Amino acid sequence: MPEQPNLEVLDAGALTTVQDRGRPGYAHLGVPRSGALDAPALHLANRLVGNPEQTAGLETTLTGLRFRVSHGVRLAVTGADCAVLVDGRPAAWGAALSVAGGAVVEIGPARSGLRSYLALAGGIEAAPVLGSRSTDLLSGLGPAPLGAGQVLPLGAAYGLAPAVEAVRPPYGSVLRVDLGPRTDWFTAAALAGLDGATYVVGAASNRIGLRLEGPRLERNRRGELPTEPMVLGAVQVPPSGQPVVFLHDHPTTGGYPVIAVVRPEDLGVCAQARPGERLTLRVVG
Amino acid sequence: MQVVRVGQRALLVECDGPDAVAATYRFLRDRAAEVGAEEVVPAARTVLLDGLADPIRTAALIGSWEAPPFPAEPDGELVEIPTTYDGQDLDEVARQWATTTAEVVRIHQETLFRVAFCGFAPGFAYCTGLPGGLGVARRAEPRPRVPAGSVGLAGEYTGVYPTSSPGGWQLIGRTAVALWVPDRDRPALLAPGDQVRFVDA
Fold first, then answer.
1. Contacts of residue A253 in chain B, CB cutoff 8 Å?
2. Which of A28, A129, A178 lies closest to B41 in CB terms?
3. What would the mean pLDDT of B61-68 be, rounded to a whole number?
């Protein structure tokens, strides 16, 4: 038996996690969905290397990642635009690469956007929890964030016909939202001002929530909302009036009213928004 | 049933109270495939249907249904939690209820609780049923670390911390039972609709 192919982490960057489609279906037990924040980027990377779209890959955060592969493997980097180096030589971002066994691959810091995605043929074979290999930073389910020296086993290549396709266009800076469900908790001014309101992405943003700093969304009442189930993309408004967009590791329930929900197709914008960048809300429904 | 849209893929069903949530949750969970929901999630006064392919169709379907009747008898699975009542906040709960710690323990053990919903952490069950509108104010300062297995009270609920975490519930005891084992067939010992009784360890 030849040794199972693996990836050895040389430098994990600020935060690199294993991500696949996550754990939908367990919210009633308090389990966050987790999974890749920019799911279309992970899907694209997987298609480029001939994997099923939901195969486990790696999600970086701003600073990139350096690793060595034990065997020759096909891989692709998508999501946030960045340099890709193979044994120190520039290689293509957003395209399938065949690298030799023993090669050192470096995913550089994001040049725009925040999170790059790495798919390798066969995928990362970390131990699944509730059917998913995703790291959930809220509840601690799934593999721990990567650290230097860690060795991740790789699966056998699926051998699907690799896709040849254009990379995704720039992400933009508009979040389209549907109003509700708790519009009745907010003042007319807060609701009227939401469309076109511009917010700065807060430094405390993470996989759990995108913290927005800008116009205060005033409530028209005091008191607490009885705990409600929360959805991906919910724009929850704590008493500070500064909204938080719930991302994949969000808690399954919450006690603050949700003024609107971000359209699923703009969750990638949330995933790629850097602290300090400006985002504009657009009410579309 | 009263339904509210939540974004492009979800609906909230509004309920009158915990009993209506319990009945509605079970009714919708048993029809998850029919309504096209990937998730059916109860909370305090609402039930969420998420992952819907066609929420407008589902809203029309559910809107045409009568709210399900409350079950005449509690009928969820009964789970017993052996508990040692030595929590640091027993005196505080006794003070809030203007009674003795022995009476707090008696009330907690004589109440047949029902899991209203889970949240906060995987396997953390909010159990309702305290008699006579009894409730408990949370601690003013949450503890930075509450050990796994701690039995607490907050608001109208009792619950058990499945894993060690920060927490603001008033702690009245502890159990050695594992509340959350992800590779078990039933990863959460307590799931919505279950009945719960706290007994001597």
1. 41, 43, 117-120
2. A28
3. 91
Contact of B117 with chain A, judged by CB distance below 8 Å, is answered with: yes
Q: Which residue of B has its CA nearest to A32?
A: B122
Yes or no: say if A259 and A179 are a contact pair by the CB < 8 Å rule. yes
* Tokens encoding A260: 């609107």
Report the chain B residue with the minimal C-alpha distance to residue A25: B39
* Phi and psi, residue B58, nearest 5°: -65, -40
Bridge partners for B174 per DSSP: B84, B150
A140 and B CB contact within 8 Å:
yes
- Give the residue ranges of DSSP H helices in A30-78: 39-48
pLDDT(A1) > 60: no
ipTM of this predicted structure: 0.95
CA distance B127 to B191: 10
Residue B21, burial from CB neighbour count under 10 angstroms (0-12, 13-18, 19+): buried
Distance CA A110, CA A63 (A): 6
In this predicted model, what pLDDT tens digit does every residue of A43-73 receive, in sequence order? 999 999 999 999 999 999 999 999 999 999 9
Question: In whole angstroms, what is the distance from residue A114 CA to residue A102 CA?
Answer: 28
* Contact between residue A9 and residue A146 where contact means Cβ atoms under 8 Å apart: yes
Give the bridge partners for A77, in sequence order: A118
Question: Does the CB of A263 have a partner CB in chain B at under 8 Å?
Answer: yes
Q: Convert the pLDDT of each residue in B128-161 to its tens digit.
A: 999 988 999 999 999 999 999 999 999 999 999 9
The pair of structure tokens assigned to A83 is 């340099």
- Report CB contact under 8 Å: A25, B191: no
> pTM of the predicted model, to two decimals?
0.95
User: Max CA-CA distance within chain A?
Assistant: 68
pLDDT tens figures, A156-189: 999 888 888 767 767 889 999 999 999 999 999 9
CB distance B7–A130 less than 8 Å?
no
Cβ neighbours around A123 below 10 Å, total: 25
A 10 A CB-CB count for A68 gives 17
B123-135 pLDDT, tens digit each: 999 999 999 889 9
Give the other-Cβ count within 10 Å of B196's Cβ.
Answer: 24
Contact A227 B9 (CB under 8 A): no
Residue B151 to chain A, least CA–CA distance (Å): 18
Give, as one character, the DSSP assignment of residue A29: G
Q: How far B79 CA sits from the closest chain A CA (Å)?
A: 16
